[in-house]
Design a protein that fits this description.
By secondary structure, this protein is mostly helical. Helix content is about 75%, strand content about 5%.
């Protein structure tokens, strides 16, 4: 039954209603005959029913991003809290989405749920967009009869996580763009401008300054090997990305390096602590056992160094160690977090204490990112000015020296 529902198609129809008025629209059905039958049940006399054509070249538009999942979760949670039935909530979400891929996925999940499947198993069939943590929380809500509350918590968790990621991405966009522009401008100067000056200088018959000769040698090298340099940079970028995905040791090395970098390391550390606190708070508040919650938190840590530490905490808690002592034994977590965990364990409000820690470190990341952006702007502009200005000075220096000789 579930398989038949999943294979349903969208049909475009035209017809007349009971008053004889012309009507048209879309309907979802397993076949053209089923579509006509459903229209008749709705009081529509169908004149034309045809399957909705697929997009040209099979295109499905923009891909689904985590922010789309966060928006969908919030909409679903809001409608569930308002008392809208689950299947109808999915229909409203589907109509409100702009991305065809997102609409298709919501439709598939809705049909699964309508056929009798649980929401968590239906979501689990889309692991790229709904991870184990998401499905686990939704499953807990279904089992306890508090699905709307759980969806609200999951929505808040996804929103906070995506806001944190967006803040960091926004801070890195400007310096990345400036660096790319600097590289392009420098390459153009070395390949196109410097050779023109070099031809002119060859007619001087005088010895050129060492700085000018140095720049001309760099220009000759870039002109001869520019294609290999470009391919090497692109290959290095994709090679590092693939190595980080495929090699655990390489990934751990990168994560360790990120934590040790000045300024950036502090932001990465605070972001990991915020993510750890937010994830553990959300899962623990949902009634997930602490050991299982720590296991999910390790997967969402975003840094292999802390993921290992969280797994160590999980193992210690399993043997009967308190969460405070387990965290303290790693030597990686800040004192504030440990103290709040200790208070939370003693007062029975661990989820609230962790939520406060998460909020604190999320704000710390916001402030640090803003400060980093303000700090990087003048530094990058200065480096760009020195780079481009240095090339220009190197080219005009022989002309100035020639003028002084004359």
């Amino acid at each position: 039954m579930a398989t038949t529902a999943i294979k349903s198609d969208i049909f475009l129809w035209r017809g007349t209603d009971k008053t004889g008025s012309q009507r048209k629209g879309e309907i979802e059905a397993a076949s053209q005959a089923m579509a006509k039958a459903q229209l008749r049940q709705q009081g529509i006399k169908p004149k034309s029913v045809r399957r909705k054509p697929k997009a040209l070249f099979g295109g499905k538009g923009k891909p689904i991003k985590p922010v789309d999942i966060a928006l969908f979760t919030r909409q679903l949670a809001t409608m569930m809290k308002a008392g809208v039935p689950l299947v109808q909530s999915f229909e409203i979400c589907e109509e409100g989405m702009e991305k065809p891929q997102m609409q298709e996925m919501i439709r598939t999940i809705r049909l699964e749920v309508a056929s009798g499947s649980g929401l968590a198993p239906a979501l689990a069939k889309h692991p790229r967009h709904f991870d184990d943590l998401f499905c686990s929380l939704v499953g807990s809500g279904e089992d306890s009869g508090t699905l709307e509350v759980m969806l609200d918590r999951v929505a808040t968790y996804k929103e906070k996580t995506e806001q944190l990621k967006a803040k960091i991405r926004k801070a890195m966009t400007y310096p990345t763009a400036v660096v790319v522009v600097a590289i392009v401008v420098t390459a153009i100067l070395l390949i196109k401008v410097v050779p023109v000056f070099a031809d002119t200088f060859s007619q001087f018959g005088a010895e050129l300054p060492a700085f000018t000769l140095f720049v001309m040698n760099i220009s000759n090298f870039v002109q001869e090997w520019w294609l290999i340099i470009f391919v090497g940079i692109v290959a290095a970028f994709f090679g590092i990305r693939e190595a980080k995905i495929r090699s655990v040791r390489f990934s751990e090395g990168i994560d360790k390096l990120m934590l040790r970098l000045p300024v950036v390391g502090g932001i990465v550390h605070d972001a990991v602590i915020a993510r750890f606190s937010r994830t553990l708070s959300t899962t623990f508040a949902a009634g997930v056992p602490l050991v299982d919650a720590l296991n999910s938190t390790a997967g969402a840590a975003g840094n292999s160094v802390y993921a290992k530490a969280i797994l160590q905490i999980r193992d210690d808690v399993t043997t009967g160690t308190t969460l405070f002592n387990a965290i303290k034994s790693t030597g990686l977590f800040p004192t504030m977090l440990m103290q709040m965990v200790s208070i939370g364990e003693e007062s029975g409000s661990l989820d609230d204490m962790l939520a406060k820690v998460a909020t604190h470190y999320e704000e710390a990341v916001d402030n640090a990112v803003d400060n980093l952006s303000a700090l990087l702007e003048p530094i990058i502009m200065s480096v760009l000015g020195v780079l481009v200005g240095g090339l220009l000075i190197a080219m005009y220096l022989p002309i100035f020296m020639l003028g002084s000789v004359i």
